[in-house]
Amino acid sequence: MSKTTKQKTTFSLIILLLISFLLINLGNAKTQIVQANIFGFFKDEDSQVTELDNQNISIQTDDSYWLLPGNFLEQEEPQQDITYPDFSEIEAAQYIVMDMESGEVLLEQGMNEIAYPASMTKILTALTVLESPDFDLEKPIVFSEYAVEMPSPVSVTAGFSPGEESTTKNALALMLIKSANDCAKALAENYGGTEADFVNLMNEKAEEIGCTNTNMTEAAGFGLEDHYFSPHDLALIIQRAMQNEVFKEIVSTKTYFAEPTSFRPSTGWEVINNSNLLLLQGDDLLNSPYLHTYDGVKTGTTDLAGHCLSATVHTYDGRHLCGIIFNGNLELGSGRTQVGVLLRGILEQAAINANCPADEAALEFLKDHTEVVAKIQEVKNEQINQIFGLNEKAEQEAQVTETTPPQTINEETYTETMLEERADQLEPSDQTESSEQTNLLQKIKDLPNTVIMGLLFLLFILLIFLFIKLLKPRKKKK
């Protein structure tokens, strides 16, 4: 080998080492290039971020779907540390968890057995009213002596008097939020003629939905043995009811101010907190890493039925689950609990069985897709601007002067700060890995995506060229 050839070979090897060094330093920012978003602008174009009516954030990428609570990136207030019972401790006569989109049953016990629903009966009462041919939110509801008469002095009522008139909307809200039995009976009379005729409509509605083990005998759910659902039948009824916007709005209401009636001229003559504990505290004190955003449904308690509860909730991969527990045993080995705590445990176990991701997985996804975080912030800023009319104001100011550039927040710094603050509230799986990811994200941010991609492309072409030159045999001079 000649001296010139050796020099060329040495030079080529040095170039290859330099290329390898550069590739390692750029590649180590994230070994997985797609995850590090080095080619992010190809994928960013396809990521869709939408804020839903319930404030949840829907995220659709090429290969995944996420549903996050609207406040997921916000710093949360410290909550009381609660120890929940293990799933193996939970006892109930029957329970079910069903995916309301697919109808798939994720977890169940006795889902086709007879189950006594107590006031969960009012879900079908409401649905029968809502789907009645003459349904009107403003239709007058007149309370008869029969409607206000209760079988027990402890029966829950809104306190209406005979002859008092309200609206369908007010009666539905008081029935579903407070579980007012006088409203259930009055709605049945006003929409069915008599309660008995209305009950026939309820049974027909159940059959239409596909229920095979349901028999209603009255509209309120006082609890006789010939009045029952199966857990699966009630899940189907809830699935249908949650498609009705009026029903969804009412059962997701946490506090309700009773509307004026013919005897009470002022709003708020009764202020009611929803009796569904999971709706009130499911995203706070009763939170689960697998569940978020409870949005219904109804409680029920009688001596025969025991402690019953139905609730709907979302998972981080976009499932909308309906969970129902019948006759839950509140006396655990570790002490007495609430039926909401029992149903929380059942719903969480169903989510785990279905391989639903936890909140930590959602946070890791956002760390690897910082462009999605930026889009989330854009969506939220747009909503704020619309609420306060800032878009119109900005346009007016722009017409007056264009000399002063608007003050903007450093989006990259803001995004990383949000992720770091939210990560502090979730258990880190590995502190070293978390620290490395933060440094790697900063490395990526220091160079625009187009520059990094261009460098990698040029280095790749140069590498191929040098290999060809090295491998190409040289012709000997004659």
What are the main properties of this structure?
478 residues; 3-stranded antiparallel beta sheet; 14 strands; 18 helices; 5-stranded antiparallel beta sheet; Beta-lactamase; alpha+beta
- What portion of the residues fall into strands of 2 or more residues? 15-25%
Number of helices: 18
Shape: elongated
CATH topology of the domain at 87-353: Beta-lactamase
Broad structural category = alpha+beta
Helix content: 40-55%
User: Largest beta sheet: what is the strand line-up?
Assistant: 5-4-12-11-10
Quick description:
The protein has 478 residues and is of the alpha+beta class. It is 45% helix and 15% strand.
Textual characterization of the structure:
The structure is a single chain. This protein has helices at residues 3-27, 33-36, 40-44, 121-130, 145-148, 168-178, 181-192, 195-209, 231-241, 245-251, 277-281, 339-353, 359-368, 370-388, 390-400, 411-424, 431-446, 449-471, and strands spanning 48-51, 57-60, 65-68, 92-99, 105-109, 140-142, 165-167, 255-257, 271-273, 291-302, 306-315, 320-328, 331-332, 335-336. The protein has 478 residues and is α+β, with helices and mostly antiparallel strands. The protein has a domain at 87-353: Beta-lactamase (3-Layer(aba) Sandwich). It has a five-stranded antiparallel sheet with strand order 5-4-12-11-10, sandwiched between helices. The chain has a three-stranded antiparallel sheet with strand order 1-2-3, covered by helices on one side. It has a two-stranded antiparallel sheet with strand order 6-7. A hairpin with a 4-residue loop joins strand 11 and strand 12. The longest helix is centred in the N-terminal third of the chain and has 25 residues, at 3-27. Residues 30-45 and 428-438 have low confidence and may be disordered.
